[in-house]
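$ run holo --ligand "adenosine monophosphate" --emit tokens
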Amino acid sequence: MHLSVRYDPKEKKFPITNLAHIELKMRHFLTNFAVALTKIKINIKDGTIKKSDRVIGIDLGTTNSLVAIVDPVTREAYCLGEPEDKIVPSVIHIGDDHSVTIGKKAAAYLTVEPEHTVYSVKRLLGRSYTDIAGHAASYGYALVEDQTKAMVNIDIRGRMYNPIELSSYILKALREKAQTLIGEPVSKAVITVPAYFNDSQRQATRDAGKLAGLDVMRIINEPTAASLAYGIGLLKHESKTIAVYDLGGGTFDITILSIQDGVFEVLSTNGDTYTGGDDFDRAIVEYWCLQMQLDLKEAEADQQLYQTLRLEAEKAKKYLSSNESYSRQIKVKDSYLELSLEKDTFESLIKPVVEKTLACCALALQDAGLEVPAIDEVVMVGGSTRTPYVVEKVSGFFHGTHINNSINPDEVVAIGAAIEADILAGNRKDMLLIDVTPLSLGIETVGGMMDTIIPRNTKVPFQAGRQYTTSVDGQSKLKIAVYQGERELVDDNRKLGEFILGNIPAMPAGLPKIDIHFILNADGILKIEATELRSGVRQDIEIKPQYGLTDAQVEDMLLSAMQNAETDMQKRMLAEAKAEAGQVIYYCRKLTGSHSDLLTEHELASIRDMIELLELACNGDDRETINKQIDRLNDMTRPFAEKLMDDAIGKALTGKKLDAL
Ligand code: AMP
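-- output --
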């Protein structure tokens, strides 16, 4: 009586890959959670939203972090701090008594105490050692090599620190900075993350906020924040497609965003996590070494010389952003070096790096299914977009489309986060409040799993549908149970109702095509239509999804989903493995029974034994063992599947009718 495998409309069939192996296309537990958290609430005519505390906007960056607010009087968004200390380096130093230092003071320890000084912690948030193993050696501090899927730990002075805890120190410092500068307690924030961050990275960021004593009202994408800083997406009925080009010191991201009535949707992202302004500096150092006939390898080996050249290169690069040539004499040890660089030369040196970023832009457009003319505006983010050559080339690539680069590219993300924070605080009475469904809506599938049809935060009205099939031969009725919530298993979510789709004509499992359509109207009323497409049998019901749920209950449900994400995923994978095993056993029994003539007694007995072993494995909770047994049974029955196919083809060739399997 359960729904089973999802129909694949492209293949026009249900995915049955071999005799005993029905591929359950339900491995989407992660994507379920990655529903856009970027949607914003906009424009209210009557200003009825309750005014709440000050909410700060935080750009938690890989290299630098900033905090911004909207001034309650002037309504201007700005970054907090004096010009020289607005930017807080995302560096954490752990002292010998485990005391924590953040920012510039911590950065001073980078060269002298690298093993106690953590930088780029954002690259580790929500990631396991195996995720980052390829780059592990490049960190100056000790990542704990545990080969598990758990979040990586950092061993500092014999104590384990995890990236959430370390990031929370940065957030706490930013929160304290805001409190000191605005003279009020601050407990709410909007934090930005890269658009490509997956659910566990977003969750880790949220947890870091919580640890820092912040109620994280929303996690928003950095490109969305940058657009908001330019006022893009704030107008009602605005419909635009924009490209956000973000070139920092060590990373490059391009994001294509679609904005419609205040809802931001990421169409595609591309980039390179190891490309940025640092490459410009390196190219200059290489050029100078060539000029001075210094061997680059030798220069690199001499850390003092190399670091001096690198810092000079960065100075020269910045100088050339507003001048035509740079020249300086520097002293290294006892010798003097003449360093000079013309703007033209600099541009030819960085050309390959800039071209690499443009190739990423082309790929992002391709992934979004768009051509350059579809882009209405480009937004520039990141310190390296101060280089005029970068702006010139990006402008050329986007055929002269309007380039937004008037806001300080280091501050633009934090400023956008502050604007979003201001909207959420209810201070923008001209903003429309778009209703979104607060929790995901879906149905129960095999194994008691939640299959989300409308993700949470979807703007209403909205409709979406999916196709399913049956898991048992001759099934004439289907129970469709509707749930609300973010947990992987329906038992942990809230049941909204159920109904029966009856009178389905008897068909082999997998053949019925059951279309389940959710229609959510503007009042939050959910209507569900279920139709068996081959027979036309239909049934529908109406459900009020939010009935009886207070805001606090919604919050609680979201919180528990986040807290249980890891265990839920494990449970879901176990339930999936058991469901798959059930299907495999079912088909093996069915086909070995109806075509036993194709097997020897010995083969039949071996298959039976193997089925028993799989059943035994299913009585336990070890997913690995179940999957291993499924594979063994599949391997054992593969020759039989081939014989079955040969037999069927043979019959067809001799004019006989093909048996339905
Ligand atoms: P971000 O990661 O966004 O803070 O960007 C840092 C990068 O921007 C570094 O590579 C800096 O050298 C570079 N940068 C900062 N100021 C300038 C400037 N005036 N011209 C060119 N690059 C700059």
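-- notes --
The pocket of adenosine monophosphate is lined by residues 63-64, 248-249, 276-278, 314, 317-318, 321, 382-384, 386-387, 410 (CB under 6 Å).
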